[in-house]
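A favour, since you know our C-alpha coordinates better than I do. Just paste the record in under my message, thanks.
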Amino acid sequence: MDKSQPTFSDLELQGCRRVTRRQRFLDLLDEKVPWGAWAARVEPFYPKAGGGRPPVPLGTMLRMYAVQVAFDLSDEGAEDAVTDSRAVRAFVGCGESPDATTLCKFRRLLEDNGLGRALFEELNASLEAEGLRMSTGTIVDATFVEAPSSTKNARRARDPEARSSKKGKNWHFGYKAHVGVDAEAGTVHTLRVTPANASDLSQAAALVRPGDTDVWADAGYVGVAGWLGGCASPSAEWHVARRKGSVPGGERPAESLLASTRSRVEHAFHALKDLLGFRKTRCRGLAKVENRLYASLALANALLAARAPRPQGPPACAADPRHPRAALLGLLRAAAGAA
Protein backbone atom coordinates (compact mmCIF):
# COMPACT_ATOMS: atom_id res chain seq x y z
CA MET A 1 0.00 0.00 0.00
CA ASP A 2 1.46 3.34 -1.10
CA LYS A 3 0.86 6.00 1.52
CA SER A 4 3.32 8.51 0.06
CA GLN A 5 0.68 10.23 -2.06
CA PRO A 6 -1.77 12.20 0.11
CA THR A 7 -5.48 11.56 -0.31
CA PHE A 8 -8.31 14.05 0.03
CA SER A 9 -8.81 12.76 3.59
CA ASP A 10 -5.15 13.53 4.39
CA LEU A 11 -5.52 17.08 3.08
CA GLU A 12 -8.72 17.51 5.08
CA LEU A 13 -7.01 16.30 8.27
CA GLN A 14 -4.12 18.69 7.75
CA GLY A 15 -6.55 21.58 7.94
CA CYS A 16 -7.84 20.52 11.38
CA ARG A 17 -6.38 22.53 14.23
CA ARG A 18 -7.11 20.02 16.99
CA VAL A 19 -5.70 16.52 17.00
CA THR A 20 -8.26 14.17 18.51
CA ARG A 21 -7.47 11.36 20.94
CA ARG A 22 -8.51 8.85 18.29
CA GLN A 23 -6.00 10.38 15.89
CA ARG A 24 -3.21 10.20 18.49
CA PHE A 25 -4.14 6.60 19.27
CA LEU A 26 -4.06 5.60 15.61
CA ASP A 27 -0.77 7.44 15.07
CA LEU A 28 0.73 5.41 17.92
CA LEU A 29 -0.44 2.15 16.34
CA ASP A 30 0.87 3.27 12.97
CA GLU A 31 4.28 3.81 14.55
CA LYS A 32 4.50 0.74 16.79
CA VAL A 33 2.93 -2.01 14.68
CA PRO A 34 5.39 -3.76 12.30
CA TRP A 35 3.11 -3.73 9.29
CA GLY A 36 5.70 -5.22 6.95
CA ALA A 37 6.36 -8.19 9.26
CA TRP A 38 2.63 -8.71 9.75
CA ALA A 39 2.04 -8.73 6.00
CA ALA A 40 4.88 -11.23 5.52
CA ARG A 41 3.27 -13.67 7.98
CA VAL A 42 -0.21 -13.38 6.44
CA GLU A 43 0.76 -13.16 2.76
CA PRO A 44 1.19 -16.95 2.17
CA PHE A 45 -2.46 -17.45 3.18
CA TYR A 46 -3.92 -14.39 1.47
CA PRO A 47 -5.79 -14.81 -1.86
CA LYS A 48 -3.78 -14.05 -4.96
CA ALA A 49 -4.97 -12.02 -7.91
CA GLY A 50 -6.46 -14.15 -10.67
CA GLY A 51 -8.71 -13.62 -13.65
CA GLY A 52 -11.46 -12.01 -11.62
CA ARG A 53 -11.67 -9.00 -9.36
CA PRO A 54 -8.31 -8.32 -7.67
CA PRO A 55 -8.27 -8.71 -3.87
CA VAL A 56 -8.09 -5.71 -1.55
CA PRO A 57 -4.42 -4.89 -0.76
CA LEU A 58 -3.21 -6.90 2.22
CA GLY A 59 -1.93 -3.82 4.02
CA THR A 60 -5.39 -2.25 3.86
CA MET A 61 -7.04 -5.34 5.33
CA LEU A 62 -4.49 -5.58 8.14
CA ARG A 63 -5.11 -1.97 9.10
CA MET A 64 -8.87 -2.40 8.96
CA TYR A 65 -8.60 -5.50 11.15
CA ALA A 66 -6.45 -3.51 13.59
CA VAL A 67 -9.20 -0.88 13.75
CA GLN A 68 -11.76 -3.59 14.47
CA VAL A 69 -9.64 -5.01 17.29
CA ALA A 70 -8.56 -1.66 18.72
CA PHE A 71 -12.13 -0.36 19.07
CA ASP A 72 -13.84 -3.75 19.63
CA LEU A 73 -16.11 -3.37 16.61
CA SER A 74 -18.26 -5.80 14.67
CA ASP A 75 -17.59 -6.27 10.97
CA GLU A 76 -20.33 -3.79 10.12
CA GLY A 77 -19.13 -1.41 12.83
CA ALA A 78 -15.60 -1.42 11.39
CA GLU A 79 -16.96 -0.62 7.94
CA ASP A 80 -18.99 2.25 9.39
CA ALA A 81 -15.96 3.57 11.29
CA VAL A 82 -13.88 3.74 8.11
CA THR A 83 -16.73 5.47 6.31
CA ASP A 84 -17.62 7.97 9.06
CA SER A 85 -14.26 8.86 10.63
CA ARG A 86 -11.65 10.84 8.74
CA ALA A 87 -8.93 9.70 11.14
CA VAL A 88 -9.78 6.01 10.69
CA ARG A 89 -10.08 6.41 6.93
CA ALA A 90 -6.64 8.02 6.76
CA PHE A 91 -5.18 5.27 8.97
CA VAL A 92 -6.58 2.48 6.79
CA GLY A 93 -5.39 4.37 3.71
CA CYS A 94 -8.03 3.45 1.17
CA GLY A 95 -10.23 5.51 -1.08
CA GLU A 96 -13.17 3.14 -0.81
CA SER A 97 -13.47 1.14 2.42
CA PRO A 98 -13.75 -2.65 2.17
CA ASP A 99 -17.22 -3.84 3.10
CA ALA A 100 -18.15 -5.91 6.14
CA THR A 101 -18.24 -9.15 4.14
CA THR A 102 -14.64 -8.67 2.96
CA LEU A 103 -13.52 -7.99 6.53
CA CYS A 104 -15.42 -11.05 7.78
CA LYS A 105 -13.65 -13.29 5.26
CA PHE A 106 -10.27 -11.81 6.22
CA ARG A 107 -10.98 -12.28 9.93
CA ARG A 108 -11.92 -15.91 9.35
CA LEU A 109 -8.75 -16.42 7.33
CA LEU A 110 -6.74 -15.27 10.36
CA GLU A 111 -8.78 -17.46 12.71
CA ASP A 112 -8.62 -20.60 10.55
CA ASN A 113 -4.83 -20.37 10.26
CA GLY A 114 -4.11 -19.25 13.83
CA LEU A 115 -2.42 -16.07 12.62
CA GLY A 116 -3.37 -14.01 15.67
CA ARG A 117 -0.46 -15.59 17.53
CA ALA A 118 1.88 -14.80 14.63
CA LEU A 119 0.89 -11.12 14.79
CA PHE A 120 1.45 -11.15 18.56
CA GLU A 121 4.92 -12.67 18.21
CA GLU A 122 5.96 -10.29 15.44
CA LEU A 123 4.95 -7.23 17.45
CA ASN A 124 6.84 -8.44 20.53
CA ALA A 125 9.92 -9.10 18.40
CA SER A 126 9.66 -5.61 16.93
CA LEU A 127 9.42 -4.00 20.38
CA GLU A 128 12.52 -5.88 21.54
CA ALA A 129 14.40 -4.83 18.41
CA GLU A 130 13.52 -1.21 19.19
CA GLY A 131 15.22 -1.56 22.58
CA LEU A 132 12.41 -2.58 24.93
CA ARG A 133 14.24 -3.96 27.96
CA MET A 134 13.19 -7.48 28.89
CA SER A 135 14.01 -9.00 32.26
CA THR A 136 14.36 -12.48 33.71
CA GLY A 137 11.20 -12.05 35.80
CA THR A 138 7.59 -12.90 35.01
CA ILE A 139 4.30 -11.93 36.63
CA VAL A 140 1.50 -14.45 36.13
CA ASP A 141 -2.22 -13.87 36.46
CA ALA A 142 -5.54 -14.68 34.82
CA THR A 143 -8.68 -12.75 33.93
CA PHE A 144 -12.16 -13.72 32.78
CA VAL A 145 -13.32 -13.00 29.24
CA GLU A 146 -17.10 -13.08 29.25
CA ALA A 147 -19.11 -14.84 26.55
CA PRO A 148 -22.76 -14.08 25.72
CA SER A 149 -24.96 -16.26 27.93
CA SER A 150 -28.15 -15.61 25.98
CA THR A 151 -29.78 -18.42 23.98
CA LYS A 152 -31.65 -16.00 21.70
CA ASN A 153 -29.77 -17.03 18.58
CA ALA A 154 -30.20 -19.34 15.60
CA ARG A 155 -28.84 -22.37 17.49
CA ARG A 156 -30.89 -21.70 20.65
CA ALA A 157 -27.77 -22.48 22.67
CA ARG A 158 -24.87 -20.84 24.44
CA ASP A 159 -21.26 -21.22 23.36
CA PRO A 160 -20.64 -24.99 23.75
CA GLU A 161 -16.96 -24.54 24.67
CA ALA A 162 -17.47 -21.80 27.28
CA ARG A 163 -17.93 -22.67 30.95
CA SER A 164 -19.13 -21.02 34.16
CA SER A 165 -16.98 -20.16 37.16
CA LYS A 166 -17.49 -18.31 40.41
CA LYS A 167 -15.17 -15.68 41.84
CA GLY A 168 -16.22 -14.28 45.18
CA LYS A 169 -19.97 -13.87 44.93
CA ASN A 170 -20.05 -13.35 41.16
CA TRP A 171 -20.53 -15.96 38.45
CA HIS A 172 -18.74 -15.64 35.10
CA PHE A 173 -19.58 -17.47 31.88
CA GLY A 174 -16.99 -17.63 29.15
CA TYR A 175 -13.23 -18.12 29.03
CA LYS A 176 -10.14 -17.32 31.05
CA ALA A 177 -7.01 -15.63 29.69
CA HIS A 178 -3.85 -16.73 31.53
CA VAL A 179 -0.96 -14.35 30.87
CA GLY A 180 2.72 -14.07 31.67
CA VAL A 181 3.90 -10.45 31.82
CA ASP A 182 7.53 -9.35 31.73
CA ALA A 183 8.27 -7.77 35.11
CA GLU A 184 10.51 -5.06 33.64
CA ALA A 185 8.77 -4.12 30.38
CA GLY A 186 5.21 -4.76 31.57
CA THR A 187 4.23 -6.37 28.26
CA VAL A 188 2.59 -9.77 27.80
CA HIS A 189 4.95 -12.44 26.52
CA THR A 190 2.82 -15.60 26.95
CA LEU A 191 -0.90 -16.30 26.64
CA ARG A 192 -2.96 -19.40 27.34
CA VAL A 193 -6.75 -19.50 26.93
CA THR A 194 -8.99 -21.99 28.71
CA PRO A 195 -12.65 -22.30 29.62
CA ALA A 196 -13.55 -20.15 32.62
CA ASN A 197 -13.70 -23.07 35.05
CA ALA A 198 -10.02 -24.00 34.56
CA SER A 199 -7.79 -23.47 37.58
CA ASP A 200 -5.15 -20.72 37.50
CA LEU A 201 -2.64 -23.28 38.77
CA SER A 202 -3.20 -25.57 35.79
CA GLN A 203 -1.52 -23.05 33.44
CA ALA A 204 1.16 -21.72 35.80
CA ALA A 205 4.04 -23.74 34.35
CA ALA A 206 3.20 -22.75 30.76
CA LEU A 207 3.46 -19.03 31.58
CA VAL A 208 7.09 -19.17 32.83
CA ARG A 209 9.89 -18.69 30.31
CA PRO A 210 12.93 -21.01 30.42
CA GLY A 211 15.30 -18.23 31.51
CA ASP A 212 13.13 -16.71 34.24
CA THR A 213 14.71 -16.49 37.69
CA ASP A 214 11.79 -14.86 39.56
CA VAL A 215 8.03 -15.32 39.21
CA TRP A 216 5.43 -13.21 41.01
CA ALA A 217 1.82 -14.29 41.55
CA ASP A 218 -1.20 -13.40 43.67
CA ALA A 219 -2.85 -15.53 46.34
CA GLY A 220 -4.70 -17.53 43.69
CA TYR A 221 -1.45 -19.42 43.07
CA VAL A 222 -0.96 -20.62 46.65
CA GLY A 223 0.20 -24.23 46.42
CA VAL A 224 1.77 -23.77 43.00
CA ALA A 225 4.77 -25.94 43.96
CA GLY A 226 2.58 -29.03 44.01
CA TRP A 227 1.38 -28.35 40.45
CA LEU A 228 4.70 -27.54 38.85
CA GLY A 229 6.52 -30.85 39.23
CA GLY A 230 9.46 -30.37 36.88
CA CYS A 231 7.56 -28.54 34.15
CA ALA A 232 8.60 -24.96 34.89
CA SER A 233 12.01 -23.32 34.75
CA PRO A 234 14.12 -25.04 37.46
CA SER A 235 15.86 -21.74 38.32
CA ALA A 236 12.66 -19.77 38.87
CA GLU A 237 11.89 -18.62 42.41
CA TRP A 238 8.19 -18.10 43.05
CA HIS A 239 6.96 -15.14 45.12
CA VAL A 240 3.31 -15.89 45.88
CA ALA A 241 1.20 -13.46 47.89
CA ARG A 242 -0.30 -14.70 51.12
CA ARG A 243 -3.98 -14.65 51.95
CA LYS A 244 -5.45 -11.44 53.31
CA GLY A 245 -5.07 -11.19 57.08
CA SER A 246 -2.27 -13.76 57.30
CA VAL A 247 0.64 -11.28 57.00
CA PRO A 248 2.30 -10.25 60.29
CA GLY A 249 2.93 -6.55 60.78
CA GLY A 250 6.71 -6.86 60.50
CA GLU A 251 6.48 -8.47 57.07
CA ARG A 252 4.10 -5.96 55.51
CA PRO A 253 6.86 -3.88 53.82
CA ALA A 254 8.03 -6.96 51.94
CA GLU A 255 4.45 -7.87 51.08
CA SER A 256 3.90 -4.30 49.85
CA LEU A 257 6.85 -4.69 47.49
CA LEU A 258 5.33 -7.90 46.21
CA ALA A 259 2.01 -6.14 45.57
CA SER A 260 3.68 -3.24 43.73
CA THR A 261 5.44 -5.71 41.48
CA ARG A 262 2.28 -7.68 40.69
CA SER A 263 0.47 -4.46 39.75
CA ARG A 264 2.10 -4.48 36.34
CA VAL A 265 -0.07 -7.36 35.21
CA GLU A 266 -3.11 -5.22 36.00
CA HIS A 267 -1.80 -2.60 33.56
CA ALA A 268 -1.95 -5.22 30.81
CA PHE A 269 -5.53 -6.11 31.77
CA HIS A 270 -6.39 -2.39 31.86
CA ALA A 271 -5.09 -1.95 28.31
CA LEU A 272 -7.01 -5.02 27.13
CA LYS A 273 -10.34 -4.33 28.80
CA ASP A 274 -10.52 -0.55 29.28
CA LEU A 275 -8.45 0.93 26.45
CA LEU A 276 -9.35 -1.68 23.81
CA GLY A 277 -12.75 -2.53 25.27
CA PHE A 278 -12.36 -6.31 25.04
CA ARG A 279 -14.51 -7.35 28.01
CA LYS A 280 -16.91 -9.70 26.23
CA THR A 281 -16.07 -11.80 23.21
CA ARG A 282 -18.13 -11.72 20.01
CA CYS A 283 -16.74 -15.10 18.88
CA ARG A 284 -17.90 -18.63 19.65
CA GLY A 285 -15.35 -21.34 20.30
CA LEU A 286 -12.02 -21.49 22.09
CA ALA A 287 -9.88 -21.19 18.94
CA LYS A 288 -11.60 -18.00 17.74
CA VAL A 289 -11.48 -16.40 21.18
CA GLU A 290 -7.77 -17.26 21.48
CA ASN A 291 -7.02 -15.73 18.07
CA ARG A 292 -8.83 -12.50 19.01
CA LEU A 293 -7.04 -12.34 22.35
CA TYR A 294 -3.64 -12.69 20.68
CA ALA A 295 -4.46 -9.83 18.29
CA SER A 296 -5.83 -7.66 21.11
CA LEU A 297 -2.82 -8.26 23.36
CA ALA A 298 -0.51 -7.40 20.48
CA LEU A 299 -2.09 -3.93 20.28
CA ALA A 300 -2.16 -3.73 24.09
CA ASN A 301 1.59 -4.37 24.15
CA ALA A 302 2.08 -1.53 21.66
CA LEU A 303 0.22 0.81 24.03
CA LEU A 304 2.14 -0.40 27.09
CA ALA A 305 5.50 -0.06 25.37
CA ALA A 306 4.74 3.53 24.41
CA ARG A 307 4.43 4.52 28.06
CA ALA A 308 7.39 5.45 30.23
CA PRO A 309 8.54 2.56 32.46
CA ARG A 310 7.34 2.77 36.04
CA PRO A 311 9.93 2.86 38.85
CA GLN A 312 8.63 -0.03 40.93
CA GLY A 313 9.41 -3.66 40.31
CA PRO A 314 12.25 -5.87 41.52
CA PRO A 315 13.82 -7.18 38.29
CA ALA A 316 16.62 -4.62 38.63
CA CYS A 317 17.13 -5.24 42.35
CA ALA A 318 17.22 -8.99 41.73
CA ALA A 319 20.29 -8.43 39.58
CA ASP A 320 21.84 -5.38 41.29
CA PRO A 321 22.37 -5.42 45.09
CA ARG A 322 22.89 -1.64 45.05
CA HIS A 323 19.28 -1.06 43.99
CA PRO A 324 17.37 0.82 46.75
CA ARG A 325 14.74 -1.91 46.89
CA ALA A 326 17.23 -4.76 47.17
CA ALA A 327 16.93 -4.78 50.97
CA LEU A 328 13.15 -5.21 50.77
CA LEU A 329 13.55 -8.03 48.29
CA GLY A 330 15.92 -9.70 50.77
CA LEU A 331 13.23 -9.36 53.46
CA LEU A 332 10.70 -10.92 51.12
CA ARG A 333 12.90 -13.90 50.32
CA ALA A 334 13.81 -14.37 54.00
CA ALA A 335 10.13 -14.35 54.93
CA ALA A 336 9.37 -16.87 52.20
CA GLY A 337 12.17 -19.11 53.44
CA ALA A 338 10.96 -18.90 57.03
CA ALA A 339 7.45 -19.85 55.97
The two ends are 60 Å apart (CA to CA). The first strand starts at residue 137 and ends at 146.
